[in-house]
Amino acid sequence: MDLIAIKHYLQGKGLVAMKDVALHFNQNADTVRPLLDIWVSKGKVKRAETKACSKGCCKCDPATLELYEWVG
After folding, report:
1. Which residues are CB-neighbours of 65 under 8 A, at least 6 positions away?
2. Mean pLDDT (whole number) for 3-15
3. 10, 17, 53, 65 — which has fewest CB within 10 A?
4. Does the pTM of the predicted model rise above 0.85?
Protein backbone atom coordinates (compact mmCIF):
# COMPACT_ATOMS: atom_id res chain seq x y z
CA MET A 1 0.00 0.00 0.00
CA ASP A 2 1.33 3.39 -1.00
CA LEU A 3 -0.01 6.81 -1.91
CA ILE A 4 -0.53 5.90 -5.55
CA ALA A 5 -2.48 2.75 -4.67
CA ILE A 6 -4.74 4.79 -2.40
CA LYS A 7 -5.18 7.39 -5.16
CA HIS A 8 -6.28 4.74 -7.67
CA TYR A 9 -8.63 3.12 -5.16
CA LEU A 10 -10.33 6.42 -4.30
CA GLN A 11 -10.58 7.47 -7.94
CA GLY A 12 -12.36 4.25 -8.74
CA LYS A 13 -14.74 4.30 -5.79
CA GLY A 14 -15.82 7.91 -5.34
CA LEU A 15 -16.99 8.48 -1.77
CA VAL A 16 -15.63 5.72 0.45
CA ALA A 17 -15.54 5.01 4.19
CA MET A 18 -12.25 4.74 6.05
CA LYS A 19 -13.21 1.20 7.05
CA ASP A 20 -13.55 0.19 3.40
CA VAL A 21 -10.15 1.66 2.50
CA ALA A 22 -8.53 -0.15 5.43
CA LEU A 23 -10.22 -3.44 4.52
CA HIS A 24 -9.24 -3.13 0.87
CA PHE A 25 -5.57 -2.76 1.80
CA ASN A 26 -5.78 -5.25 4.69
CA GLN A 27 -4.67 -2.60 7.20
CA ASN A 28 -6.21 -0.93 10.22
CA ALA A 29 -7.58 2.61 10.07
CA ASP A 30 -4.67 4.02 12.10
CA THR A 31 -2.25 2.83 9.41
CA VAL A 32 -4.24 4.20 6.46
CA ARG A 33 -5.28 7.55 7.95
CA PRO A 34 -1.82 9.23 7.77
CA LEU A 35 -1.57 8.40 4.08
CA LEU A 36 -5.02 9.80 3.43
CA ASP A 37 -4.06 12.89 5.45
CA ILE A 38 -1.20 13.52 3.00
CA TRP A 39 -3.67 13.60 0.11
CA VAL A 40 -6.03 15.80 2.15
CA SER A 41 -3.22 18.28 2.86
CA LYS A 42 -2.44 18.44 -0.88
CA GLY A 43 -6.08 19.19 -1.64
CA LYS A 44 -6.57 16.00 -3.65
CA VAL A 45 -8.87 14.25 -1.16
CA LYS A 46 -11.83 15.68 0.70
CA ARG A 47 -12.72 14.32 4.14
CA ALA A 48 -16.35 14.25 5.23
CA GLU A 49 -17.25 12.96 8.67
CA THR A 50 -20.88 12.26 9.34
CA LYS A 51 -22.16 12.93 12.83
CA ALA A 52 -24.16 9.71 13.08
CA CYS A 53 -25.85 7.13 10.98
CA SER A 54 -29.57 7.26 10.42
CA LYS A 55 -30.28 4.75 13.19
CA GLY A 56 -29.40 7.14 16.01
CA CYS A 57 -28.06 4.41 18.31
CA CYS A 58 -24.41 5.67 18.44
CA LYS A 59 -23.08 2.11 18.09
CA CYS A 60 -21.56 2.53 14.63
CA ASP A 61 -17.84 2.02 14.17
CA PRO A 62 -16.37 5.53 13.73
CA ALA A 63 -14.35 4.26 10.76
CA THR A 64 -17.61 3.66 8.89
CA LEU A 65 -18.63 7.29 9.44
CA GLU A 66 -15.31 8.80 8.33
CA LEU A 67 -15.66 9.33 4.57
CA TYR A 68 -13.09 10.26 1.92
CA GLU A 69 -13.47 11.33 -1.70
CA TRP A 70 -10.90 11.94 -4.43
CA VAL A 71 -11.41 15.45 -5.81
CA GLY A 72 -8.26 15.65 -7.92
Report:
1. 17, 49, 50, 51, 52, 53
2. 94
3. 53
4. no
Report the C-alpha gap between 32 and 51 in whole angstroms.
Answer: 21
Number of H helices, E strands in the chain: 4, 3
Give the integer Cα–Cα distance in Å for 37 and 31: 11
Give every CB contact of residue 47 below 8 A, 6+ residues apart in sequence.
36, 40, 66, 67, 68
13-64: per-residue pLDDT in tens? 989 999 999 999 999 999 999 999 999 999 999 998 665 556 666 666 555 6
Count of all residues that appear for the chain in the document: 72
Nearest to 67 by CA among 3, 21, 7: 21
